[in-house]
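To whoever picks this up:

The parser on our side crashed when reading a file containing two proteins. I've narrowed it down to the boundary between the first structure block and the second sequence. Both blocks are reproduced below exactly, byte for byte. First block:
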Amino acid sequence: MRRFYRLSATPPVLLIHGGAGPRKKPKEKKLCREAIAAVIAETSVLVKRFPPGDPIVANSLAMPIGAALLLAISLLTGETRVPPVRPAA
């Protein structure tokens, strides 16, 4: 189970910690990993409460829930949010 946790939590953590910026303490890194794992797990649990159906409906429910949880975590940690300057290509 621990190996699965590492594999599932590693890509988002690399995205967050991979950029240039102030170095985080090991305790903060662990808290970030735990928060990411909690967001992924909570989204899965909430989506599974609904009966199986159209995958588009499932995604339309999961995306705002995950976004709200990530926004809450971002606000709690005091992370700066920078809007995009130009549209994606």
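<<boundary where parser fails>>
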Amino acid sequence: MTEIDIKNFDRVLKLPKVVVKVGASWCGPCRMIAPVVDEVAEKIPEVPFYSVDVEKFPPISKEFNIAGVPLILFLEEGKEIHRITGMATIASIEHATTVLRDK
């Protein structure tokens, strides 16, 4: 999964559809959900998945009003269409990704 940084932030936001896993290195639940998100990314390769560490790239927090992590953003042309906050099941992430893909 590609990490969002200052070099690719604008390009990622211009993608037609994208899922962004938001976390932080110190966040235990973020580390726990990472393999679940990776599994969904492998199952649904039509939608690109990116990750971002809010401490390494603070502008994401302001752009999407992020108050806590873990968080998964589902974006269409840079606009948020759905978010999952906190721990999530593979089924809920897969469902939201499928809805985004089929939209």
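After patching the parser it read the second block fine. The longest helix spans residues 28-43. Helices lie at 9-13, 28-43, 59-63, 90-102.
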